[in-house]
Amino acid sequence: MNLIKMSEQLNQRSGEPQTHAFIRKLASKKFEELNWPSKKMELWRYSPTHKLQGDYLPQINAISEDKKDVTTNKNPLDFNAIQATLRASLKDFIDPRFETIIIHQGQIILSEDSKNGLISPHFQIISLKKALEQGLIDSSSFKTEENKLEALNLSYFEDGYFLKINEQAKLKKPLHLIYLHSSDSSSNPLFQTRFVVSCAKGSEATLIETHMVTSSLESNAHGVSGSSWNNSTSLIQIEDEAHLNFIQWSETPASHQDTHRTHITLQNKSKLHYLQGIFCEGWKRNELNIRTEGSDAEMIIHSFGFSQKDGVIDQPSRIEFSNSANQCQQIFKNLLTDQSRAIFNGFIKIHPAGQKTDCSQLHQSLLLSSTAEVDTKPELEIYADDVKATHGATVGSLNPDELFYFQSRGISEEKVRSMLCLGFLMELCDELTVKSVPNYLKSRIKEFWMKDFQ
Amino acid sequence: MIEIKNLHAKIGDKSVLKGINLNIKAGETHAIMGPNGSGKSSLSKVLAGHPSYEVTEGEVLYDINFQKTDLLGLEPDVRAKEGVFLAYQYPIEVPGVSNFNFLYEAFKALCLHHGADQMKETDFRTYALEKMRLVDMKPEFLDRSVNVGFSGGEKKRNEILQMAVLSPRFSILDETDSGLDIDALRIVADGVNKLRTPNNSILLITHYQRLLNYIQPDFVHVLADGKIIETGDKSLALKLEEKGYDWLL
Ligand SMILES: Nc1ncnc2c1ncn2[C@@H]1O[C@H](COP(=O)(O)OP(=O)(O)OP(=O)(O)O)[C@@H](O)[C@H]1O
Ligand SMILES: [Mg+2]
Fold this sequence. Notes:
CATH class of chain B: Alpha Beta
Number of strands of chain A: 20
Structural class of chain B: alpha/beta
Distance between the termini of chain A: 50 Å
Largest interface: A-B, 24 and 29 residues
Bound molecules: adenosine-5'-triphosphate, magnesium ion
CATH architecture of chain B: 3-Layer(aba) Sandwich
Number of domains of chain B: 1
Structural class of chain A: alpha/beta
Radius of gyration of chain A: 21 Å
Strand content of chain A: 35-45%
Radius of gyration of chain B: 18 Å
Number of strands of chain B: 12
Shape of chain A: globular
Number of helices of chain B: 8
Oligomer: heterodimer
Strand content of chain B: 25-35%
Strand order of the largest sheet of chain B: 6-9-10-3-11-12
Helix content of chain B: 25-40%
Order of helices and strands of chain A: HHHHHEEEEHHEEEEEEEEEEEEEEEEHHH
Largest sheet of chain A: 10 strands, mixed
């Protein structure tokens, strides 16, 4: 049976509205047309593309009735019970200074299965499907691009959330979305979810996303067995004069993989402070795709990652400046050990209308073992003359002067190494201006480091 | 406290110490002056155990539990835990590690080494803040990354803060006075004086006689081309200030 037919059947079965059916139909057509990523494609050259089909192809080819039952939620779930269990198992992640919302297997878990999601005077967060049904978003949030995995996501997306920050709303509390997948060792689940965030004019918000996989509902994120593939997309729109602090945190255990796409558009005088934190023993790919739709926007794009064992941190980044006087600072830092790898492709395009663009890009890697590897490539296309654009990449090991400085204060070499590595990872957190967030992130980094590295 | 005997050292292919002899007793303060590039910082780094320097000849005996111990045979962190402290001429910036963390880890290592009870984090904060007052540092410096964005003078104060927290037995202050304004010089010197006891020794490296008005040395040495070429009391510093080094070389 071909995919298009199958997705039609899925739609009939789950009673999805016409819009969904239409989206899925278009996307599955695209999916059929496009080739699977391979080493021959520039943006996949160093990626472990062989992992994409393997165990998952049978699932893609035959998404079974069972799977759909879970996601279309025929038997109403006991949300209160799930919420309680999840909150208990995630207690380390839940910080009282944040408004925490849990998304489990693509579904928002609120106290009850509320029809309108969670609404406050400043924002609304609702299941993506419901948002579509209620006309809160239109199908433009579901555009199929020339991207096989995007098409895959659109064909089969289970759900996700839509978050709207209202016009002029200033969110005092950061919103923390804990995005959790449970995978047991017997199956190789493939998760497809989408997130849509819209920051309306003049709004200010801090959004933290934590992505992780657990073995079961009750267990903690560490030491997960089995394997899974999470193929998800975030779409973020920042309107005029809106300001978003967006923190994406992910933990990808060994033999799990996460192919994520983050699309961001910025309008006039908007601000984005993006911070990505990656802890990876599996394969974590984030395709960052940023476009300006106005002038005078300011962007800070920061990323820090730690990878060990066979972990791969895979970061194709693409930024397009189509308007004038936009600013962007990009810093990517990765700490690699064992035979882990970091792959970076930093594409920047300044269109003829992009006069007075000011952008910089820096990729720094710290290698703790001789078998760790970095593949980094900047790519600048500049079609405007009055611009500033710089890029650089460094690969090194710990600074011997820093090592000696700390050692000469009585701290053992081993401890100093660990402190300096943590410092390397934590440095970018300090740039966040919302006070509670750096502390939270640092304690997470520390915990992860202590548990899994030492 | 410490006996330096015929110490020779090189960095890369360059000989920087060419037979240093120096004996510092407990409670004494010695000053070293000398032209740029004469080897003053090199001497201090060799004593602290910097891995870039290779000792080619000589020995350094340091009192540990009333026993003369081969200092050069100890790892840098062990030297520090045994009370050797170097306030750097150019303190390094370490992004991502907070001053508090740095001080606390150093203090914990020290306690552990000497079998003392560990101090709780909150108690240590109180202790560290008290020491910060000694060198007139604002509390917010405790949670900033080590030396990052500190002004020259702030870096120097931060070194003395570390000294105050760790209460070393043998401290080397490498040009702690340069970069300090007049008030800061007095504050830092007062801080150092408070840490002086009959059991502690200090080696001051400086270019300026002025510091020696605040921290009175028992001996003044002149280092030139890797050797001590003159030793005297504090009047030697005045003479050098007046005449320069030419008459000695
Ligand atoms: N890494 C190095 N490689 C080669 N030569 C070095 C190195 N580090 C220091 N030197 C040389 O060693 C000599 C002594 O340097 P040192 O820093 O000890 O001088 P100093 O007496 O402290 O000078 P100043 O008064 O300027 O601080 C200088 O000639 C210096 O250039
Ligand atoms: Mg010097």
